Fold each of these.
Amino acid sequence: MPRLRSPSPADRESVPREISARDAMAQLAEAKDMLRAIGAGEVDAFVISGGDTGRHVFTLSTADRPYRMFVENMRDGAATLSDKGLILYANSGLAELLGYARETIVGSPLSRFLTAGEAIQLSEIKGADGLGATLELDLLTDTGDVVPVQVGSSPLVVDDEPLICLTFTDLSAHRAQNREIARLGQAQTERMAELQDAQAALTKQATHDALTGLPNRALLVDRISQALHQSQRSGRRNAVLFVDLDRFKQVNDTQGHAAGDSLLREVAERLTAALRPMDTVARIGGDEFVILAPDIDSDVHVVDLSARLITELGRRPEPGNHATRVAASIGISVSVGGRGTAESLLNEADTAMYQAKSLGGGRATVFDEALGHQIRQRSIAQQRLQSALDERRIVAHYQPIVDLDTARITGFEALARVSENDGSLTLPGAFIPVAEDSGLVVPLGAQMLDVACDAARGWRTATTPESPERRLTVAVNLSTRQFDAGNLTTIVREALQRTGLDPTCLHLELTETTIIDLDPDFLAQLGQLGDLGVQIGLDDFGTGYASLTHLRRLPLTFVKIDQTFVQGLGSGEDERIVAAVVDLVANLGLRSIAEGVETADQLGRLRELGCNQAQGYLFARPFVPGDIPAAVERRLVGDDAGIEASCTTAPTSR
Amino acid sequence: MTQSDVPRYALTLFVNGASELSSRAITNARLLCERHLGGRYQLSVMDLRDEPGAAADSRVLAAPTLVRNRPLPVRRHVGDMAHTARVLKALGLPDAAAG
């Protein structure tokens, strides 16, 4: 009976079967079922019987193969859970994590592989809202080891069946990495702190003065600009105080730089202590301090403040403190409602400070419009002088110097003029102060040396008969700023070489008032000039310190007696001074030259006192270069009568 | 062993390795058995590639195929086992929902 036949495979294989209608129906149904499944893509392999060679499995390549391979081969574990928590599918990654065969894993509840066991609720894995979750769990492997994993879940429904897809990411390496990161993070934090410290130090260095720790010029300008900006709306006042220590250079020179530095620090402290917290005190140069007092109530406040600062700086030092009392000059500039710029305020305060200093120091001066006008005039004059230098429009006029024994011209003092484009001449009084202030006196002096040497070389050839004792000299004034420039010797040597002038014919005059101190560099340069063969003299003697030290230590050959004494000849005191100076100079083996001789009486007294030479309007106004040969010829036969014949009534000599 | 201890239904699911279709079929088959044959069944999962002979013995021509070995007669259903009603009908299994 077919119905009772055993369904053993052996039977099916070996015994020819009688196929009942029912079996046929069943086979037909199976065939239809398979066709449906193939059509629906629900078949991925066929088993083909190959006779003696056995059976082969042919796997279908399907569109979802990359996805399957991805899930199958990914390093992370992957699993599908039933909604009761059974593992329905596990990839090789999860099998590797757990150390169990896949057959063991599939069909088992997930809780079996968790250290938390059944304590972990499936709802927790699904996520509170049922939309999935990420949580960290510990897996229990077949060897009893614990593997921390991050579990990601995403619930989905396949053909009405709720499922949960899971991924397992091994965190052991991650945890170890985290510990390393935490360790590195700590080190990094420390390093960052160091870097921040270094950064702060650098910033401070860029914005602060190293010696006193005060803000530097850059930071000051920034703060002034900010204060001005803020005052544009508020209309408030801001004051800038330029503080310059009087005679600071002397402290540095006589007590050394360490003492100077210590003094500057002391000043910084005293200034800071005397100010309001919102004020800024900056050090912008050697002994120059600037205070920004923002938002001041009135100018009276600033005047009070500067008076207090001067008092404070002049206070006697505490016992045991070696700092000296300091005198300071303060220039004040006030801006109302944000007027001006940081630079203009600083310039104004600087100008006012110079004003205070020129009034004797130890005082404060407020910048006003008159000073402003003065600055603008200076600025214009400076520009004009600069273009005159650029266009080599510096010319010289020459004032004769007469020997009082022979009544002959021995040489000339070169006096600078600027030849203007309109044909007029500008006299020294209009440009020398600007030249000195701006430093243009250095190129000006160089051009004068060139012009004068050139001219003097011409006099020699024009004078007949030529003899060494009849060589005419030319005197050129020097500024101490030319010594500061450091290349004076070179400039003089080149001027001599270029013109071929006998060095002994070049007389260089130093103004006594400008010689502040005899520093080694200055004396060395004078020595070098002397070595060139030029003669060096002291101008305007008696108006400065009339220092015997100067007379003794400078390599001089002549001294010029200032015209103020010459013009006082006839009055008792001035005459005694001139007599004393002439004697002193003669006793030191130097030549005396009287300046500004205007009258025959003065000339007579000078001769009686034994003065060697003289210059002044009595003899002649300064000559233009072209008139010199004729003038020299006339003087060659000159005598007292000749001198008197050329007498003029001009009131001043320069 | 009493009668009630012997599972009434013996089923074998033949699949093709760990393919996605295999996973789906396994999942669906397990769910189906649990829901409709609760406690009275034995389900084995076999890989065609591991057990090609067994597949041939059960006259399995494709994967996935779920074979009802017991009770006789042997019946087969091919597909991902997603359509529960179809699977139950093809294999002649009781529908729990229908009583």
Amino acid sequence: MQRALLTGIVVSITCSMIGLFLVLKRYSLFGDALSHVAFGGIALGFFLNIYPIWTAFAVSVSTALGITKLRKSTKISGDAAIAVLLSSGFAMGVLLISASHGFTIDLFSFLFGSILLTNMQDALLIVAVSCGVIATLIAIRKPLIHFTFDEEQAKVHGIPVEKLNYLFVALAAVTVIATMRLVGILLISALIVLPNITSIMMGKGFKKTMLISISLSVSAVIAGITISYYFNLAPSGTIVMLMVAMFVGTLVAKHVGMFSKTINEHNLSTTS
Amino acid sequence: MPVNALDVENVSVSHNGVLAVNKISFNVQEGDLLGIVGPNGAGKTTLFRAILGLQNYQGKIKLFGYEGNQYTTLLSMIGYVPQKVNFEPNFPATVYDVVAMGILSKKKLVKGVALIQSCGCCWNRIFATSSKDSEKIEEALKIVGLESFKDRRISELSGGEQQRAFIAKSLVKEPLLMILDEPVTGVDMDVQNKFYSVLRKINKENKITIVWSSHDLTAISDLATRVACMNRELFFHGEKKEFFANKDMLKTYSESAMQMHMHKHDL
């Protein structure tokens, strides 16, 4: 349980941090697409009898970099690229599984998460990778925020936007693999998107929005793992439903005027 | 002979075989406020994007006499305010956060200033040398009159207020040159006047070189030192007095402007 909690907390922090940039760049479903590609990578691992996490890393990161290059050179639209990624990655996985041992418990744990069953080796790997992603994001936070806000202005400002974009998608791919054990391939996008769209609604600046997102995510993970442990429920589903509840609660609170005023309200009360 | 802040030599830009900018040449001296006028579709934005390295072009563009890698180094010290900044409407950045994005790293500043000093030019500071980043941001917000808005989300501001925030973002880097692309389009008169007073201050008091495109001939007449008139090609570049004394030039521009207005108001 403690191992699950520690792993879950570190992973949720990573998802919140990278997820905020993904949401603001309108790459929300990119995480979902990468997780489906990761399924293909895991299936490849089972097929080749290699530790599936390594094949998942290799396939996800190379696909993320490849699709970024493809979008730049052929001007494929964002949603079309995601559709291609999602379907081809998952289809590859299904094909490889049908050619090998069929669906096993191990495979189910990647699809739906198995944080409570994570062994020490996996936990250490996930925590190490997540800490690496967090450290990198902290180091590149200023250029990444500028790049996310306005890519052209960032380029004029001297930020190497192309290299930064590749680094960013590689970090996203690594985060997705690290998150698989917590909520499974099918629910990763929830962890990336939900805490961030909830915190964005609260109308604060960037740093506070990220801190709120991290707080929401960590709270949901701690509560979700604890509830699922004592009530024998699936941790992934419990965590995500708690995040949904937070989102709905914030939406209602915003509707009744608990957060910052809208632009119209500001224009009525101030002069330009 | 002093080096020009900007040299544009025979620059052409084409989109899908159509020439958007055709062999334009002009220069901007240090301390100038060059007003560029021309109808919509004249290629002003395209020209600015070429200068800023956001657009491929043929020809030569130099910043303080530099090309190539040194040009790219100096680009980071240019302040650019586009016609419209397209950012995510829910972006959770306060006005302070946005202005802070303009702060240049010490490494870039040192490189850029060294290049400027080697060509015998001046880096006209806006802030005191000992100013910390936070002090520069506060001061820039004061210059544009947005100090009370610093904790508000950028998306909550009106169009005019946002443009002033982006000007402040350019000011914090203490730019060698500012490029402003029709920054007051669609903004009411009161805000325009506030903007023009900021422009006057930073050019006259802080001696920042400015290249500014506008449809407002009255403002150009009031603020600019030199004028360039373009419609894919350059058909005037010179002293403001010369432009406004040239009745044919004014008529040509006025006709273009009228066509634009007639189109706009469906007359």
